[in-house]
Automatic annotation (TrEMBL):
GO terms for cellular component: cytosol. Pfam families: Formyl_trans_N. The record marks D144 as: Raises pKa of active site His. The keyword Transferase applies. The active site is at H108 (proton donor). Its EC number is 2.1.2.2. This is Phosphoribosylglycinamide formyltransferase. It comes from Exobacillus caeni. It is an enzyme of class 2 (transferase).
Amino acid sequence: KKVAVFASGSGSNFEAIAEAVGRGDLKAEIELLVCDKPKAKAIERAAGFNIPAFVFQPKDYDSKVAYEKEILGELKRREVDFIVLAGYMRLIGETLLSAYEGRIVNIHPSLLPAFPGKDAIGQAFDAGVKVTGVTIHFVDEGMDTGPIIDQEAVAIDREDTREQLQKKIQAVEHSLYPKTLAKLLT
Ligand code: GRF
């Protein structure tokens, strides 16, 4: 399967997925990184794997429809058949949703439906819950909604700091996302 990964930030999940492809654990080709932040570290990581990047700034377009049409053109040109969101900090609009119905997945750092939206790790930490985790789900028009595919729990220990919790969650993300994609894409 030909995949595009969308990221806005560090791209550590992008890298974990690219490494899984490199090891042969995930039978897919990453055709493109799509990134809405010209300074994102994800872009450097893509270059390191020789994966092309389509970088854009929403403010250069009149509307979400306009930039998503352009993204769609890039995806079509490269015959991408699956979209993987990995820290892409925007809602997917109708243009991409209708073209890739049932073929867009996202990862979120909580056990959804708990703690949707921004800073889910901080939200869980501040709420004082003892268990949080990672969710992989299909994308619909909502924010972190859509059918759940996989979840893994992460315990919050009494002595954990916010930073330690973030590290634990990231470690789970980096192993779970490639594994779940391997199941979905075969
Ligand atoms: C991850 O925690 C992911 O769950 C969330 O955004 C973060 C992206 O991190 N949606 P990275 O850019 O992959 O390092």
